[in-house]
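Operator note (shift B, R.M.): manual run for Phenylacetate-coenzyme A ligase requested after the automated queue skipped it. Running by hand, logging everything below so the morning shift can see what happened. Input copied straight from the record, untouched. If output looks odd, do not overwrite the archive copy; leave it for review.
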Amino acid sequence: MILHEVETFDRIEMEALQLERLKKVVHTVYEKVPFYREQFEKNEVSPKSFQSLKDLSRLPFTTKEDLRIHYPFGLFAVDQSELVRVHASSGTSGKPTVVGYTEKDIDMWSEIVARAISIAGGKPGELLHNAYGYGLFTGGLGLHYGSERLGMTTVPVSGGNMSRQITLIEDFNPTVICGTPSYILSLAEKLEEQGKDPRSTSIKYGVFGAEPWSDKMRKTLEAKLDIKACDIYGLSEIIGPGVAMECHESQDGLHIAEDHFLVEVINPNTLEPLPPGQEGELVFTSLTKEAFPIIRYRTGDIASISYEPCECGRTTVKMSRVKGRVDDMLIIRGVNVFPSEVEHFLLTMKEISPHYQLHLKRKGSLDSVELQVEMSEKYFHEIGGNADDEKVFLLGKQIQELMKSSCLVSMDVKVHIPKSLPRSEGKAVRVVDLREVVKKDIRT
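Run finished. Output pasted below as returned.
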């Protein structure tokens, strides 16, 4: 086990380091980023007034909309000539959010991700199979540079082409695999389709993230692949993957790289701070970035934090697994529910595969949800391969009752045959909003 000294700092040492770095970053953004200078002056705050970490609360939050308004480079703290790389979000809901890195930023990010991979069980000299997508998405290159920094042999497979993925896994014998959990699950199923046992590969550890996933999904992946599946967290706006990492020893919360990122948890409605252990929206301030420092960024991710000791020996604050996103939360007839909650309870049923979608529809003036699931291969064969069997109807009713009692939401349920729902080539699409389609059809 590799333990970096900073990961074992006591609380006094860590907060002293954070304050020292916070003072530098607030001076930087005040001097070099007009947006932040305006925020400081509007709130009558001077960089010199920062004498404790609590002083940060005197500044307003930064939001994704702020990044879009200043698209593409308006929030950068360095001249474009100093950048060595830019990344960006997909921009599916508007202008993409663009982030930049200096040479020092890339070096620092690589070190952060190297630490993360080692926390998950990776070791120098071993081989890492990287199935995250490469390109503007930070996942692929982020894990790639971190793996190389740790001293691992890195296979930059990217996503897609599962047959090639399987061939390389069989021939190269990696010990670590990285990717979205939904994609790795599809990869395991592809192995089974080929008559191979996913548990027989050389893989020991999985570094999975980029989408919310439940503990039930973790157990499914671990059982199918005979691995330790660990959660990695990050956002492009903060730096990319590596902001926090779950240790393979306890798998009970993700260790935040506190020497580089200062975390807060707020009530997303009132914006008031929340104490450790209480779920709310994660807010991050970067402490060491040169090109794109960010102050009190509202992530939209729902989680809690804990300062409890960890059996791995690290003393850094831990965040819980992300329950969901503020904007992914479904409000159906006054009831709040996250897709990850549906997944958690759905995967308790052996008759159902881990693939599902939530279709949002409109019934009259009210929103409704149709849960699309598919039978497991084993159950489908048990009922003789008959999708019209009365047992399938009763299974749908059983799922309805489970969702009603567990998530407190009434859902229509449609049970499909195995392998009929879309498979992930990257981030899984769990929610399909058909309400807008209906509106357009009506107008037409």
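Quick read of the result: The two ends are 62 Å apart (CA to CA). The longest helix spans residues 11-32.
Leaving this for review. - R.M.
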